[in-house]
Amino acid sequence: MKKNKVAFITGITGQDGSYLAELLLKKNYIIHGLLRRTSILNIERIQDIINKYEKIGKLNLHYMDLTDTSSISNLIIKYKPHEFYNLASMSHVGISFYTGEATLNINTLATYRILESILKNHKKCKFYQASSSEMFGSTPPPQNEKSSFNPQSPYGISKVSAFHITKYFRQAHGLFASNGILFNHESPRRGLNFVTRKITHSLARILSGHEKKIHLGDISTRRDWGHSKDYVRGIWMILQYKKPEDFVLSTGKNYSIEDFIKKVFKILDLNWKDFVTTNNKNFLRPSEVRSLQGDSSKARKLLKWKPEYDLNALCREMLLNDLKLYGMNLEEAKKIAKKLSKN
Ligand code: NAP
Ligand code: G4F
Fold first, then answer.
1. Counting ligands in written order, which one lies closest to the CA of residue 162?
2. Do 77 and 24 share a structural domain?
3. Among 18, 152, 169, 266, whose Cα sits 20 to 30 Å from the Cα of 29?
4. Cα–ligand 1 centroid distance for 11 (angstroms)
5. Are residues 182 and 205 in the same domain?
6. Are residues 233 and 128 located together in one domain of the fold?
7. Distance of alpha carbon 113 from alpha carbon 119, whole angstroms
């Protein structure tokens, strides 16, 4: 009988970690999710798979700390994973301007700690590093694997360093270590303080009477947005490729934050200008990444990966999910929107 593959996932409680765990469980993997200690147990995104898979031993959760090398090594030595997906990070670009040192510790040094431990203890393990389009920074679009990195934030710098650490362990020590350079990807599981989810969630709060306005920063910047479900499929494909390599995953389309707002408000026939304030200084960054648009032709050719969601479908799914959180379906929300428009 074929043995189940064993995968480690750091960041399993996050957006991508939760979707990736679901995908791998469907593929019959045994998952070990590596968690940090938090004062309130933060397992909302993985509660359903915990209920289904924990008691049969397919999903196992372990406490570790990314600043504590032995807490990672002990688990690698004990469970000998076939694949290690390093998704944990301080993933908020805006917040990284205030927490640069911690961002480097978690995003960069932890990558080194994990790879060194794999090298010492279990060289056969394949490793995936969650690299980011934020690394391109001020490099003009379209960006691909050959574009230069010009990071504009502590987050971007931390990810560039982790990218090179991953490449170093591949080239100097022969590890199967690959980078996925992923452009922005969203979903109903996106954290509430990223701009897309902030927009859909705050709109649901406005309709349910909890808020009056959405306060945003610079809405002229442009992003290449896909759906997290499409991107975790790509992440898995990167580790199944015949050799370790770096791949860009992106939709290839580029929209402004304003375009995103318009698409969401159009679903309810609302005039966004009545509900959104911009250039709020709390959400402006000391330096910005103005425009990201990925060229993922390498992944499309070699991995046969392509995204299935378009931006309209993504906006709709995110908005409908947030309306549901506040007890509304689309028809009810449209009625409330109509009344708000008249006032
Ligand atoms: P996310 O929802 O913010 O999840 C981040 C995960 O990292 C969470 O599970 C979080 O745990 C964990 N984490 C944060 N700090 C930690 C620490 N000190 N120790 C242990 N775990 C820690 O991010 P995501 O959107 O799923 O992104 C996954 C990865 O891809 C990240 O590395 C991100 O930087 C990268 N990435 C994301 C995108 C995107 O557009 N989403 C694009 C490119 C790259 P808690 O739940 O306890 O907070
Ligand atoms: O949604 P954001 O915070 O995402 P950002 O900075 O592009 O970073 C995300 O994508 C990266 C990949 O390129 C990931 F690596 C990273 O982990 C994260 O997932 O901001 C998008 C844009 C920015 O230009 C920001 O300045 O929206 C602008 N923005 C305008 N008002 C805002 C707001 N961003 C946030 N978070 N909140 C606002 O009120």
1. 1
2. yes
3. 169
4. 5
5. no
6. yes
7. 10
The residue nearest atom 44 of ligand 1, judged by CA position, is: 132
Query: What is the per-residue pLDDT across 168-204, written as a single tens digit (0 to 9) for each?
Result: 999 999 999 999 999 999 999 999 999 999 999 999 9
Q: So what's the pLDDT on residue 1?
A: 66
**Residue 340 above 70 pLDDT?**
yes
Tally of residues, the chain? 343
Ligand number, closest to the Cα atom of 223: 2
**CA nearest ligand 1 atom 33, residue:** 91
- One domain, residues 95 and 238: yes
Specify the pLDDT at position 193.
98
Tell me the C-alpha distance between 261 and 107, whole Å. 30
Note whether 201 and 229 are same-domain residues: no
Computed over every residue of the chain, the mean pLDDT equals 97
Which are the contacts of 262, defined by CB distance < 8 A and separation ≥ 6?
272
Domain that holds residue 244: 6-186+225-249
Buried b / exposed e along 162-186 (16+ C-beta atoms within 10 A): bbebbbebbeeeebbbbbbbbbbbb
The Cβ-side half-sphere exposure at 275, using a 13 Å CA radius, reads 27
Domain identity same for 50 and 73: yes
Banded model confidence at residue 208, pLDDT cuts 50, 70, 90: very high
Residues with catalytic function = 132, 134, 155
Q: Quick one: 140 and 263 in the same domain?
A: no
Cα-to-centroid distance, 159 and ligand 1 (Å): 12
CATH number at residue 141: 3.40.50.720
User: Is the distance from the beta carbon of residue 300 to the nearest atom of ligand 2 less than 6 Å?
Assistant: no
